[in-house]
């Protein structure tokens, strides 16, 4: 049940850029902050990153979008530094929001999309397959031997 609330103009202005960055409306962003704050207060011993990941998974489940990862992708992602994982998370969110953002491959790799982004000024390729309400993250790496390894 929705109810009307009066929020300060200052809070709304603070929420606008965050909402735009996360592709949410301003009310949804403020609701997200409220849920996050509640989760942090209820679980003071849990790491903040774990709470963020859990809330993100709940939001994706509500949106009907399922993101799966292959062991190959998981191994590559685990090797990244924490700050680089945040860039990767942003790239995955972009793919979840707009699955056709990547370049569709042809031939042996038909049905595979490749999204390019930068981590520390180095171009990184992320391959994935998109099927209706599911995105499967296949692999992650630099251009060197990326496509050869992807064919395996």
| Sheet having the most strands | 5 strands, mixed
Category from helices, strands and their pairing: alpha+beta
Q: What is the C-level CATH assignment of the largest domain? A: Alpha Beta
CATH homologous superfamily heading of the largest domain:
RelE-like
* Cα-to-Cα separation, first versus last residue: 50 Å
Number of domains: 2
Number of helices: 6
- Structural Rg: 18 Å
Mean pLDDT: 86
β-sheet strand percentage:
15-25%
Beta strands, count? 5
CATH-derived topology of the largest domain: YaeB-like fold
What order do the helices and strands follow?
HHHEHHEEEEH
Given as residue ranges, the uncertain stretches (5+ residues, pLDDT < 50) are: none
Note the topology.
Blueprint: H1 9-21, H2 26-42, H3 48-63, E1 66-69, H4 71-78, H5 82-97, E2 103-104, E3 113-119, E4 122-131, E5 134-141, H6 146-151
Parallel strand pairs: 1-5
Antiparallel strand pairs: 2-3, 3-4, 4-5
Report on this structure.
By secondary structure, this protein is α+β, with helices and mostly antiparallel strands. It has two domains: 9-63, no CATH class; 66-151, 2-Layer Sandwich (YaeB-like fold). It has helices at residues 9-21, 26-42, 48-63, 71-78, 82-97, 146-151, and strands spanning 66-69, 103-104, 113-119, 122-131, 134-141. Strand 2 (103-104) and strand 3 form a beta hairpin. Helix 1 crosses helix 2 (26-42) and helix 2 crosses helix 3 (48-63).
Quick tags:
single chain, 152 residues, alpha+beta, YaeB-like fold, 2 domains, 5-stranded mixed β-sheet, 50% helix, elongated
């Amino acid at each position: 049940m929705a109810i009307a609330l009066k929020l300060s103009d200052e809070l709304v202005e603070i929420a606008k850029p965050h909402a735009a960055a996360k592709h949410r409306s301003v009310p949804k962003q403020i609701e997200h902050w409220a849920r996050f704050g509640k989760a942090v207060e209820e679980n003071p011993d849990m790491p903040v990153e774990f709470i963020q990941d859990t809330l993100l998974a709940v939001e994706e489940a509500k949106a009907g979008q399922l993101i799966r990862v292959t062991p190959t992708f998981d191994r590559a992602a685990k090797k990244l530094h924490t700050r680089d994982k945040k860039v990767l998370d942003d790239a995955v969110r972009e793919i979840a929001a707009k699955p056709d953002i990547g370049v569709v491959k042809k031939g042996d790799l038909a049905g595979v999309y490749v999204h390019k982004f930068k981590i520390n000024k180095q171009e990184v390729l992320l391959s994935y397959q998109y099927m209706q309400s599911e995105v499967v993250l296949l692999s992650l790496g630099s251009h060197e031997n990326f496509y050869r390894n992807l064919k395996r």
